[in-house]
Specification:
about 350 residues
Length: about 350
């Protein structure tokens, strides 16, 4: 329950394309690493020329793949609600992809060595855990998908305390791809696995928030709740998981994501006030002007964060542009409602 590997929605197709590009990026990066090693090791001039040509070809391919991935990350429309009512799109985040992992032999060996019990007796439980990991790679975009990710995250807590002693390594590498660039990272530490799953919990909340019908009060409340929870997940990740090998889990990127989610919450609050505002008196219009100014303020902060040195070249250009447009849009709205209050209201 909560796993939907064969779903044919636009969002799942986007995720499958992202996974394919991630694999191609991984392959090109391995080729580049091999070519760079050969270039440094050889003293033959002809070989160096051939390898340099190959490197330029690989780098060109990598650039094209990264541009294709950025285009996918810019496809915010497929995550929005299908309602005919016009609403400004929200920015969701794609899930991190991961490779399959076989923990059967390492865990059985550890049980035999460390606990002195026959590892084969626990084969059924280990396989169930591996099935849970496989299922959480393709969560459905709803509460059931979130519960699936949370169940796996909770199991990692118990796994960490029993099977990952500080003095011993299982020799297992956890492979995850950066959610925006597709660059692969791997670590032996289970904390990387836990952090990546928590990141996906936050990312799934952004997708659930983006798909709500914000023309209705229930939809707005659900969107506010989802973006608040996404901000909480990214903030917890920033404060509790350090030394992340991937850019999407660096402190600078997580700080940007927290601010972006807070801004989207604030935008939904403004839309809720607009929906509930039935009176056209001076104070009501002034409150709308103040709220619009508050939305402009938080989006300006997001734009400032996105244009910092460590984040500027990482964030999709369409995100930065949309955030800037929203900042100017709500600045204009704040002046508009203030003018209406002063000119049209007694």
């Amino acid at each position: 329950q909560g796993c939907d590997p064969f779903a044919q929605t636009q969002r799942s197709k986007l995720q499958h394309r992202r996974a394919r590009i991630n694999q191609q990026i991984n392959k090109e990066m391995r080729m580049r690493a091999g070519a760079e090693n050969l270039f440094r090791a050889t003293s033959n001039h002809k070989v160096k020329e051939t390898v340099a040509l190959e490197l330029s070809y690989v780098n060109s391919n990598l650039q094209l793949l990264k541009e294709e991935l950025e285009e996918l990350n810019s496809s915010v429309d497929v995550y929005q609600n299908d309602s005919e009512s016009i609403s400004v799109p929200m920015i969701p985040l794609g899930l991190k992809e991961t490779k399959e992992l076989d923990l059967l032999v390492p865990l059985k060996d550890l049980i035999s060595e460390h606990y002195g019990e026959e590892g084969i007796l626990f084969e059924k439980e280990i396989k169930e855990f591996m099935e849970l990991r496989q299922a959480m790679r393709t969560p459905s975009r709803n509460e059931a998908g979130l519960e699936l990710l949370m169940e796996y995250y909770n199991q990692l807590y118990f796994l960490d305390s029993r099977f990952f002693p500080p003095t011993k390594s299982l020799g297992v590498f956890f492979h995850w791809y950066d959610s925006l660039t597709g660059v692969p990272s791997h670590q032996r530490a289970l904390a990387f696995e836990k952090g990546s799953v928590l990141f996906n919990i936050g990312a799934l909340h952004t997708q659930i928030g983006a798909r709500q019908d914000r023309a209705s009060l229930p939809g707005l409340n659900q969107a506010i709740d989802a973006f608040q929870k996404a901000a909480g997940a990214f903030n917890y990740l920033k404060e509790n998981f350090s030394n992340a090998p991937s850019l999407d889990m660096s402190a600078a990127s997580l700080n940007m994501l927290v601010r972006l989610m807070v801004a989207q919450v604030q935008e939904c609050v403004f839309e809720k006030m607009t929906l509930l505002c039935t009176q056209h008196d001076f104070l009501a219009r002034l409150q709308l002007a103040q709220e619009a100014a508050r939305v402009e303020e938080v989006y300006s902060l997001v734009h400032q964060t996105m244009t910092q040195a460590h984040v500027k070249d990482y964030v999709p250009f369409s995100w930065t542009t949309m955030v800037h447009v929203k900042s100017e849009h709500f600045n204009a709205l704040s002046h508009y409602f203030a003018a209406i209050a002063l000119c049209d209201c007694p």
